Amino acid sequence: MLLLYTLKNPSFPEYIFSTECGIMCLDMHSMHPYLVVVGYYDGNVAIYNLKKPNSQPSYKSSSKSGRHSEPVWQVRWQKDDMDNNLNFFSVSSDGRVVSWTLVKNELVHTDIIRLNVEGTTTEGPEEFMVHTTGCGTAFDFHKQIDYLFLVGTEEGKIYKCSKTYSRQFLETFEAHNMAVDAVTWNPYHSKVFMSCSSDWTVKIWDHTIKRPLFIYDLNSAVADIAWAPYSSTVFAAVTTDGKAHVFDLAVNRYEAICNQPVVAKKKNKTTHVQFNAVHPVIIVGDDRGQVTCLKLSPNLRKMPKEKKGQEVQRGPAVEIAKLDKLLNLVREAKS
């Protein structure tokens, strides 16, 4: 099912769409919030229009139109193309990153990149070369550089890719020992991204350096991570032991400033976390279908103190400088 809620009434959804197949991921369009793109377990993608109340998606891929052969793990809207057509990307276990464009009421697909694992080419029968495909699990697009994106895989690698150069990866990061569950660019700093994995770790990277700058071991598989929209140094992570962790690197760069159980039972596993773009609220999803809405206490969102006669500097430049200061400390320590 696809359910859409409002915080004004969290007990019952505003919109309910029943589907024939499990939905693995979704993304709401930033300019047209009534358009929701979803990825299914059977490899299809679809667009729902909330202005049209019927329960069927307005547009859906098919086996003829390039659907994935494995589950779709992430979908993400992109800027409209040159002809102002709607455009989104999808990543799947089948190793394809696909661009979908809505042209004349039809979804047209283009394979952007295939995740062939380097160094694993084997000779098949009659000297055919067989490439081992990497299973895509997560991706994220750079906030400023339009062509640049990252793809995480089940093998623990993260590939830096370009939308315009599909033959080869720009960079390969030997990131984790198990599947990469999420990868996300920092909303302020153009060089920094974060990844998490089932190997219990969260890692923070500078994309121009092959080694991570920060590594956090959370004692359980890390299912999801999210940067705070209001600070370059704050992020949240959820682990499969049912806990939410909030970090602020500016307060403590060695451990979380909050570790809190979100789901009471040991049987529940937390699977997703997301910050509200405006309010100091996070939502956490679990594998039993529950969504928990949590408000961050004032201690978790400390703002710089105002000094007498001085105006507190705020804005993107301040956030970038704050994170840069931390990164320089780490780089000096490592060099």
Quick check: average pLDDT?
85
Give the neighbour order of strands across the main sheet. 3-4-5-6
Give the CATH architecture. 7 Propeller
Counted beta strands = 27
State the order of secondary-structure elements, H for helix, E for strand: EEEEEEEEEEEEEEEEEEEEEEEEEEEH
Number of domains: 1
Largest sheet, strands/sense/barrel: 4 strands, antiparallel
- In helices, the fraction of residues equals under 10%
Ranges with pLDDT <50 over ≥5 residues?
none
CATH topology category name: Methylamine Dehydrogenase, Chain H
Supply Rg. Answer: 21 Å
Task: Compute the number of helices.
Answer: 1
The CATH homologous superfamily is named YVTN repeat-like/Quinoprotein amine dehydrogenase
The CATH first-level class comes to Mainly Beta
How far apart the termini lie comes to: 50 Å
Class derived from helix and strand content: mainly beta
Shape: globular
Strand residues, percent: 35-45%
Quickly describe the structure.
The chain has 335 residues and is mainly beta.
Architecture overview:
The chain is mainly beta. It has a single domain, classed as YVTN repeat-like/Quinoprotein amine dehydrogenase (Methylamine Dehydrogenase, Chain H), CATH 2.130.10. It has 1 helix and 27 strands. It has one helix at residues 316-334; strands at 2-4, 15-17, 23-28, 35-40, 45-49, 59-60, 72-78, 87-92, 96-103, 106-114, 122-123, 129-130, 136-141, 148-153, 157-162, 171-174, 180-185, 192-197, 201-206, 214-217, 222-227, 234-239, 243-248, 258-261, 270-275, 281-286, 291-295. It has a 4-stranded antiparallel beta sheet with strand order 3-4-5-6, with no helix packed on it. The protein has a 4-stranded antiparallel beta sheet with strand order 7-8-9-10, with no helix packed on it. A hairpin with an 8-residue loop joins strand 15 and strand 16 (171-174).
